[in-house]
Amino acid sequence: MPDFQKILNTIYEETKHLSDTGKVATYIPELASISGNKFGICLLDIEKKSYHIGDFEESFSVQSISKVLTLAMAMSCIGEKVWDRVDVEPSGDPFNHLSLLEQENGIPRNPLINAGAIVIADILVSELKEPKKDFLAFVRQISGDPTISYDENVAKSEKATGFKNYAAANLLKSYGNLKNDVLEVLDFYFYQCSLSMSCSQLCNTFYLFINRGKCRQQQEFLTVNQVKRINALMLTCGFYDEAGEFAFRVGLPGKSGVGGGIVALLPKNFCVAVWSPGLNKKGNSTRGMAVLERLTTLSDLSIF
Ligand SMILES: NC(=O)CC[C@H](N)C(=O)O
Question: Residue 1: is its pLDDT beyond 90?
Fold first, then answer.
């Protein structure tokens, strides 16, 4: 294994003063107040050794990173039946794009764009007794961390302003691909996106995806095959219309969120989380992308 701590220190110094670190998301008003200077990195290897620097222990809004976790829970509930309602192709479109959904009769391209994640949220609303509580319990279990919580202010802020998501959910409903009440499903979706986690907590949670479906405590939550599918989706769809660019520059499966977090991983090797709230035009963390590009270059580790 390379000297990860040395590599992180080098990358942190290199990218600390980037002239363009992007713009903090403001379309969810509660996210607008976050300082664009926040910057943390954490890497957890398969031996559970952790390497970190900067604001790696500070919680932030994980937003779309949560889509991987709801997908994992939905697959653990209903298995392959998920694919009757959502496809597995990259969309090549922004995360909240709607026209393909209409062209393709209400079947979202994949579970990591908003429309797909709303269908997954609908599945969980059907399957779980108390969706918000049960999903949070799932995240706490796979991370081994009972302190992880939702940020109610972020959830309420998006509930008041997430008009495109209301549009997506209504479109899905009109095609018969939403079984539950639109507002009930969106309430769950806004809460899942408001999960508040640090880079360190994200690594502990995503350990499952480098460890063939077993969490840090070695309890099995997903089959090897399910993990293979989720990692494939992170590679092809995890960065919306920048998935190609991420594979090209970084070469790892991963998932971003508009809170400025990115999680990426090399199966059976390591997972890494970066937080830097400034986003590029595609909604992905500008500095996060730069950090991960340097990480796979300096460590000579990527899936390619
Ligand atoms: N890309 C993201 O992180 C988007 C998530 C956000 N909650 C939304 O639905 O717009």
Answer: no
CA angle at 42 for the pair 39 and 43, rounded to the nearest 5°: 145
pLDDT confidence of residue 5: 98
Q: Which residues line ligand 1 (CB under 6 A)?
A: 63-64, 95-96, 114, 158, 162, 165, 193, 257-258, 283
Residue 304 domain-assigned? Answer: no
- pLDDT tens digits for 265-277? 999 999 999 999 9
Q: Give mean pLDDT, residues 178-184.
A: 98
Q: Which residues pair with 251 in a beta bridge?
A: none
Segments in 32-105 forming alpha helices (H): 66-78, 99-103
**Res 227: pLDDT:** 98
**Domain count within the chain:** 1
Give the type of residue at 253.
Answer: P
Which of 93, 158, 164, 193, when mutated, tests ligand 1's pocket best, judged by the most ligand atoms within 8 Å of its CB?
A: 193
User: What ipTM does the predicted assembly reach?
Assistant: 0.96
Residue 29: predicted pLDDT: 96
Residue 59 lies in a domain: yes
Residue 71 Cα to ligand 1 midpoint, Å, equals 15
Residue pair 289/274 in contact (Cβ under 8 Å)? The answer is no
Which CATH number belongs to the domain containing residue 126 in this structure? 3.40.710.10
Does residue 266 form part of some domain? yes
Annotated binding site: 64, 114, 158, 165, 189, 240, 258
Q: With a threshold of 0.80, does the pTM exceed it? A: yes
User: What residues does 50 pair with on adjacent strands?
Assistant: 44
**Full residue range of the structural domain in which residue 33 is found:** 4-299
